Amino acid sequence: MTESQKIMFETLFKEFQTMLLTKEQMSKITNISIRTLDRHRDGGKGCEYRYEGGRIYYPLDKVVVYLSKCIKTIY
User: Fold this and answer.
1) Contact present, 16 and 53 (Cβ < 8 Å)
2) Hey, how many other C-beta atoms are within 10 angstroms of the C-beta on 70?
3) Structure pTM?
4) Which residues pair with 21 in a beta bridge?
5) Burial (Cβ within 10 Å: 0-12, 13-18, ≥19) of residue 41
6) Does residue 75 form part of some domain?
7) Using 50, 70 and 90 to split pLDDT, how confident is the model at 1?
8) Fewer C-beta neighbours within 10 Å, C or N terminus of the chain?
């Protein structure tokens, strides 16, 4: 994990106090609607996720990697 990823991880963990983010939390972070997140997931793109107990969760470490890739493509 790079230094910028560590900072992003710590910031997100401090805000949400969890290692698994819900779809709602992921939507808030990425500024993408829940429906669009669902389409990305169904299409095989987007962030890695886990399916537990009938719900979708995004592991925080995978979210940080996903966001890092998105940021790199913008620059």
Assistant:
1) no
2) 12
3) 0.88
4) 58
5) middle
6) no
7) confident
8) C
Other Cβ atoms closer than 10 A to 75? 4
- Note whether residue 9 is domain-resident: yes
**Tens digits of residue pLDDT in 26-42:** 999 999 999 999 999 99
Number of domains in the chain: 1
Structure tokens at 31: 């500024």
Q: What is the pLDDT of residue 75?
A: 47
**Residue-range definition of the domain harbouring residue 49:** 3-70
pLDDT in tens, 42-64: 999 889 999 999 999 999 999 99
Residue 20 lies in a domain: yes
d(CA 25, CA 43): 20
Which tokens in the block code for residue 24? 């709602």
Q: What CATH number should be reported for the domain holding residue 21?
A: 1.10.1660
> In which residue are the tokens 């790199």 written?
72
Q: Is residue 49 part of a domain?
A: yes
